[in-house]
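Lab manual, section 2.4: Encoding a predicted structure.

Procedure: take the sequence of the chain (336 residues), apply the prediction step described in section 2.3, and record the output as structure tokens. A sample record is shown.
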Amino acid sequence: MPASGFRGPGYPLVAAPALPAAAPAGAADFDAAWATVDSVYPYLGYKGIPWRALRWSYRLRAVAARGEAALALLAGLLAELRDGHVFLRTRGGTTVAPYVPPRMLRDRRAFSRQVVSRYLARGARATAGGRFESGMLGQDIGYLYVSAFEPAGVAAELDEALAGLRGARSLVVDNRSSVGGSRAEVYRVLGRFIAAPVPGPEWYTLGERRRWPVIEPDGPVRYTRPVVLLANGLTFSAAELFTDLMAQLPHVTVVGDTTGGGSGGCDDDATGDYVLPSGIEIRIPTVDGRRADGTPWETVGVEPDVRVAQTEQDLRAGRDRQLERALELLGAGARR
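Recorded output:
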């Protein structure tokens, strides 16, 4: 499907329409934002977004808009991308997320670390950096909560957590509210769960195909016993890449619900940060991330091997059905 400015593989480039030489003050930010998205955003064609038509339908209002109305109009334009990685920051420092993926909205009250703690035999232990928590679900099933894959040093922090779970015959890795993070850190973390090298998936930065070198086993502790990975709509971005890669491993089963659906991102040489004429900053993905099978997970997310729905009502009743199913698969009943 041809698309204006789409630079992913297999889609032709279409020149952006010429912009006015001197845009009215109320439209300058709009014009700059539209042109930036048109130049770098990788999913216009994939999502079938009529970007050129949207420009003209929004711009008539942008010419007259001022202040809060202009900001709302700009946020509305960016919301058309339906991308949880897109945001803008006002000159006063307020961050605005124009769009939140539906599965993230659905599951924001369907996961509770407090409810999880009721299943742990002796509570959870946080690592020094606070990005992991670990504990035991009974005598020999370990529990590992993952909160983020950034900044650098996550894998070393994971080593601390895994060292305390050496005696566990199986492991539940809870990836249900990870904020994502660095692709490199995902691969380093994955190295703690593999016994042999695995191929690194490809991605595209500003349309340029890239591929990570082979992911090698790494770390002082590597866990290759049975693992159930928990995921849901709050699992987003790099956490979805981790979910997909873990799902390829023979000793891992993914339980829960479909992830949020955000495979866009940025690279060091294409940061996605742009300043508009007024000083407003916008973040637009420049990266088209791919799953192990070569397809994006943008919008569609990563599906679990075993789907278990969970609701706010479950949590109010003190139950985590997804964790209970994990325990069943690992050969233990739920203990609360």
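Check your result against the sample. The radius of gyration is 22 Å.
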